Every structure is written in structure tokens, then in C-alpha cells.
Amino acid sequence: MQNDWMKDESLKNIDPYKLEFLQALMFESSNLKKEQMLPFLMAVMKRGQEKKVSFSDNEIDTIVSVLRKHASPEEIGKIEKIMAMRSRK
Number of C-alpha atoms within 13 angstroms, CB side, residue 32? Predict the structure, then answer.
């Protein structure tokens, strides 16, 4: 996925730093295997806390909606898995 998704008008009210943080995470996670995803997400949560980056539920919903518009079917599958993990907590 290119960073074209970051230019979507729906994201105009989200801090650009947050979007850059997400873009970097997406790049880092692009080649992870299924079993590597949970440790990666735990490290992401820690990194987010350290950098004081957090997202409201509304921001998450908006970002996920935009990502789905710009994602390949494989990427959509990854998004769905991550969202399923999020809803279990």
C-alpha cells in the first residue's frame, strides 16, 4: 500500500504525526508472518505510549475505513485480523 491513503479527505482532522506513525508501522509490518504479528503489535503499543501517540475510537474507525478503500484484498485481510484482535480486548 502506498501512502496515497494519507491524502484522503476523511483524515483531514487527524494529526499528521499520527498518520506518519501509522505509515511507518504499516511498512514495518508488511513482511511479518502471522505468528510475528502479536509481538509486533505489543511493541507498537509500547512505542505509542512512549511517543504519547494514541487514537480515539472515532479516529481508528475513520483510518480503518480509509485503509480499506486503498488496500489490496490481502491487506484488507490483515486489517480485519488486527481489528478482530482489537475487539477482543
Answer: 17
Q: Which amino acid is at 68?
A: R
Cell matching residue 63: 483510518
What are the pLDDT digits (tens) for 22-81? 888 878 887 778 788 778 888 888 888 898 888 898 998 899 899 888 888 888 887 888
Give the alpha-carbon dihedral of 67, 39, 48, 68, to 10 degrees: 0
Q: Quick one: three-class SS letters along 49-83?
A: HHCCCCCCHHHHHHHHHHHHHHCCHHHHHHHHHHH
Instruction: Using alpha carbons, select from 18, 19, 15, 37 the residue that is nearest to residue 28.
Output: 37
